[in-house]
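Hey all, sorry for the wall of text incoming. These are the two entities for the joint prediction.
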Amino acid sequence: MLPRGRPRALGAATLLLLLLLLLVGFFLFGRDPEYGLRAAATLDADLYGSRNRSAADLQPLLPPKCELLHVAIVCAGYNSSREVVTLVKSLLFYRKNPIHLHLVTDAVARNILETLFRTWMVPAVVIRFYDAEELKPLISWIPNKHYSGLYGLMKLVLPSILPLSLAQVIVLDTDVTFSSDIAELWALFAQFSDKQVVGLVENQSEWYLGNLWRNHRPWPAVGRGFNTGVILLWLDRLRQTDWELLWKLIAKRELLTLTATSLADQDVFNAVIKEHPELVHPLPCVWNVQLSDHTLAERCYLGAADLKVIHWNSPKKLRVKNKHAEFFRTLHLTFLGYDGKLLRRELLGCPSQLPPGAEQLQQALAQLDEDEPCFEFRQQQLSVYRVHIAFLPHQPPPPRPHDVTLVAQLSMDRLQMLEALCRHWPGPMSLALYLTDAEAQQFLHFVETSPVLSARKDVAYHIVYREGLLYPVNQLRNVALAQALTPYVFLSDIDFLPAYSLYDYLRASIEQLELGSQRKAALVVPAFETLHYRFSFPSSKAELLALLDAGSLFTFRYHEWPQGHAPTDYARWREAKAPYHVQWAADYEPYVVVPRDCPRYDPRFVGFGWNKVAHIIELDAQEYELLVLPEAYSIHLPHAPSLDISRFRSSPTYRDCLQTLKEEFHQDLSRRYGAAALKYLTALQQSQSGA
Amino acid sequence: MLPRGRPRALGAATLLLLLLLLLVGFFLFGRDPEYGLRAAATLDADLYGSRNRSAADLQPLLPPKCELLHVAIVCAGYNSSREVVTLVKSLLFYRKNPIHLHLVTDAVARNILETLFRTWMVPAVVIRFYDAEELKPLISWIPNKHYSGLYGLMKLVLPSILPLSLAQVIVLDTDVTFSSDIAELWALFAQFSDKQVVGLVENQSEWYLGNLWRNHRPWPAVGRGFNTGVILLWLDRLRQTDWELLWKLIAKRELLTLTATSLADQDVFNAVIKEHPELVHPLPCVWNVQLSDHTLAERCYLGAADLKVIHWNSPKKLRVKNKHAEFFRTLHLTFLGYDGKLLRRELLGCPSQLPPGAEQLQQALAQLDEDEPCFEFRQQQLSVYRVHIAFLPHQPPPPRPHDVTLVAQLSMDRLQMLEALCRHWPGPMSLALYLTDAEAQQFLHFVETSPVLSARKDVAYHIVYREGLLYPVNQLRNVALAQALTPYVFLSDIDFLPAYSLYDYLRASIEQLELGSQRKAALVVPAFETLHYRFSFPSSKAELLALLDAGSLFTFRYHEWPQGHAPTDYARWREAKAPYHVQWAADYEPYVVVPRDCPRYDPRFVGFGWNKVAHIIELDAQEYELLVLPEAYSIHLPHAPSLDISRFRSSPTYRDCLQTLKEEFHQDLSRRYGAAALKYLTALQQSQSGA
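and here's what came out:
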């Protein structure tokens, strides 16, 4: 900050310092006149001109405020895709510059991260993907024993695949966490001598000293070598020095005597540096505090005024034993649980760089009237939810013409249903979970500690991150539906347990009924409910009917909302031996099996009420036959009414808004289906309002 | 950072810069040899010595790493006590120095914040309280129209009440949020000239220009005046300049012509500065970015490289209209929802400064065996939960000899019970809520938007912040119990709705039965359950019995766990006209009314199972009579089994651990009650294991 008051030794000294800063400023940022001017501005006393900028003047090495910084990350598979999100959160939390992420991904990571970043909508972040498959030939000839597999090695070929226009890039492993502004790291490029091409932090483990065990023969390195979890790559210099040729030669030669790389790219980087030490610019250790075992990191961080980047470079990750592990865990957990939507903030004072769609969204939101009674609903309908598909590893089902995926959505308070559901449905599932970032971590732990769940590889979990107060039930269903990979889907709810035989029975029925693109049908799975937490699930239709007669089972919502399922005609179902047609009627909301390309749920219905009813109307309007299956059933287990149902029951506004939504829905129907949609409107007018 | 490589214009300049920094370093921190040495160390090339410190060298004005920084905050009432937590979180998140908080509080805030900080257990944070009551006489003579009431004015008298040993202090309003390290703010003291005693940021609103409306007559100020949301007070200089006399004189004089202060202390500070401009050291505007209306803050933050402190100085707070409001909201929400337990981290490289109890806790945790099957339970039992009592404003009940408080605990998935509970229980309640920091904010919104809940001032909500995976049911009950303020408590569960008449009936019964300290009795409230979400609650015992006979009501857990309530003897209750005695039996867990000083729940029972059973045993062991009330009843509403019940049912380890807990509990019983406790052990051995 600028000194004020009368000149004193101190004042004089800092004034001198200031002048020098200007000098340096011009050296460093001659190319950026605006910056030079800014420094100059610090001379006049204008409160808003100088003083608030003097903070920047104290760090003359930082890149200009709005300069774009480039970061490259290699990311493959489900787990790394989860890991990288935490890295990116920490990076974005402290950043003040626009960021360009260059992501080298396999198909899995790309699919996940494309969806994630598209829905995340963070301003001043540019994403570009590079296909890891294309890189494999370039490095697959190098034998490698590291847990990162081939992908670690890909860091070696970045200079040849990143755009030629790109002069400098920061390369990061997915297992690092920032606790400072990446611009400070970028600033270190300015300190490279003209020979230096790569910036690295010394390795903090004993590995390259080769004394870890008898006959431990690491790759060659200078001293304890360098760690490649955080790399400053001066790309255009590397291209000039023919880097590609250089590292290949050295790697090939080492491989004559060494069987394989143990630490992937890191071994090669160190071998090259051993031979050409002039190429490396050593970075301060705080920029890569390595928490692997046998680490000397403590020597670094205890002395440090400030930690910049933490590197969980041990297969044990967060469980690594370290005297201060708890301290570092808190840094990491901070961003594991950090609400990613809070990073959707523009950079003040930089030209606006909104992601695709953000501008229209802002305008739409701006047009809403905060005092309108249904404002909350309108706002929720417009929300763009951050979506992390395939949050956990899973195997897509093999293509089978009649296969069915169970589609459902849930939030934290229904996790306990998952194990039972897995027991009842042996087939593929696509489940959308509405969670906070912190809850997503609890969910992860829940699955990992459940033998039943972790054994299932055909269940895909898609996280939709919470936003707003109304439950976006239909957006959730649409996410799960869009991710189903079989030709047919069973649109169920999380509180239902299907008959043990249902999965097989459905596939058989689809085959027999010759459902295909030519025949548009929705197969109805009759719904029942028990009012007891514990009950023995009927193993056959006969058993079910017996329980029904005994009064320990009911048709679903028989007491509260009979019209929701009456059209299924339970009396007929009792006797039925073959599938039978039923007609649509007002408020009908059966659970159905339909082709994957069926209409989506109407996202306008948020919170409680009418969300399924509208979907069935849509099916009927598109002339799907409604066929009830004689041997199919599914049973609802008891639970407390949701917060939304309670609000619906207690708040008249809530009911009025739902009514408005219904009317708007019907207007759209008539617009799209014309006279054919009239019957729905009439039905609505006849039936009482209220869901 | 230090320049490396061969000298170039740039290198030379920065080297020169470094030398100058050293020079300045010695001027500033001559008093601190360690710092001088550190600066010197940057000359040698030791990787761990210098480079990681160079970051600090770039900001030579920062106080030494482990220096204690002092902060004073005036805080009164329930809402400010909530607000100040967010401020403190943001402060601690970025701080790297030990912090001493000087809190001027009323009785309410002190009670809340003492509990909070004791249970928060943040290392390197010292708390000291000052009684606002004692300060009132010093400033109550000043008429004041500001929303902060008298408390704002208390900032004026801090120099006279803070310890004489305290030379400098940063004074903060409760409605500011840090987005940087407070040490940078502290560093600005070094820039005061020797006349300057108070550091302030210019006021960013038009207020003091007096042009906001016709006849707008603000207090005198230089230009647009200064804002007192963030103050650097040079205390010993203020004491020397007889500050107390000075501001009083000027305030008194102004009050001859002005009716009252509109902005409390801020008016007085500005009036003093108007007369003695030499006393103020203007601070960079980024240290108090004011988001009130008519603000010029934008001129500040758009130019700024970096924001330091945001000030929500408008009664509208987060709802203030501002082009960039969304940006600032995210900064604020970051800490509203931030998990406070992540701030329980020591300062690396500073002498350990653990809060009371933390060391024993660490040792206890260190002694646990991570591979022991019940490790998770042991860990959970040791957890110290952050507790924020009286999270919302409430009025303690007037002292009445036979009054009863309903005591219960819940988590987010039971919020929807609260409204019904309020309708059924018109008396005082003490409820513990197990929530994350983010959920606590949702809960706040839920209450504020519920007419039923916001109308009730006799319900105290106590937040216990989530930690670990097992539900600490008994710790929660103990928190709610400890905060009950009536002589009697009704120990209930959140899923139960009491008879509408129960509150009055209980108070009458307590009076008739002459329960007092001389008579140790537990009044049993018979428990029933319905299996329907919606049912009409019986308005009398007769109605209840009718529903029971009709099979639409059951005695509680009749199907799953009859022994839990069998000893209540429902058959006898049917006929009973007067209270009757019952005997304890194995697994008995009735809902009871007891004196507030009853035994606490055993905190070892975490998760599901046996938590109430153990408490009833404790009552029996202490020879409480068990009296069933003939007209009392309460009814359980259906809900899905909790995650813990599910885990209990699915995991054998879970059951085994519960069994172990039971055995340890009985060992303690025999230790405390000797032979008298034998009957419980025998009972346990007879009854099947499993809750």
